[in-house]
Amino acid sequence: MNIKSCKTLSGFSLNIRGATHQGKLVLGTLVLCCSTQAFSDLATADSTPVSPVPTEKKQENTSKSLLQRLLDSYEESSKTDETLKYLLDAKMYLSTAEHDLLVSQDKESAQTDIQNSLSYLQQAEKIAKPEIKDKIAKLHSAMQKLKDKTTNKKELGLDNDVARLLNTSETNLGKAKEQASAPVKIQIEALILRIRQLRQQIEHENLRADYESAMKTLADIIKSLN
What is the number of structural domains in the chain? Predict the structure, then answer.
């Protein structure tokens, strides 16, 4: 076989390998690529007098080795693409939850959006590569806590010292109100109302901080896959 034919075969094989790396060819093409490369190697050897002709066993090993590398690359690329798809779906639902959670304060709708996001995160975690699997698991746990805060009002201020002190103050003021005169009771009631307003503000700030942290973590994981 002449040198020109060898170069043509080599170029054809490398083009197929490049397309395979981009995830655009199916298994049948991978096999064709492998076979073409082995044949090209043999042809190149024939055209070079100083190189010995590969044995049949060496050709077989070369073909198997190349095919395995291509299959491994294709499989890894497919898993990465599928993981990314699940993460993008999770981000879409988490983005939708922002308005319900922080603006309209529609807790029921926010819970639904967060739960949908959690479901996609769980799917992504199942197939993710080891280096990001743990990150997804930790994010899933943090988002589950965020969802719990929308369903259990008592949980909202438990991770904030100011909120806990305000709760204690409201309890003590309630006891004082029972023994106070009428004019003092009015002032105590005003204080209790103000304490509740402050606590609601803290609860809202806690939700926002938890939400923004979850969104940033998710965005960082997605970025690492691009």
Answer: 2
Is residue 159 a part of any domain in this protein?
Answer: yes
| Residue tagged 């094989």 (tokens) | 13
Asked if residue 120 lies in contact with residue 221, where contact means CB atoms within 8 angstroms, the answer is no
Q: What's the farthest any 2 CA atoms get from each other in the chain?
A: 112
- Rounded distance, CA 121 to CA 25, Å? 28
Query: For residue 21, what pLDDT is reported?
Result: 41
| Distance in angstroms (rounded) separating the CA atoms of residues 28 and 100 | 48
Better pLDDT: 12 or 196: 196
Q: What is the residue range of 165's domain?
A: 153-209
State the pLDDT confidence band at 202, using cuts at 50, 70 and 90: confident
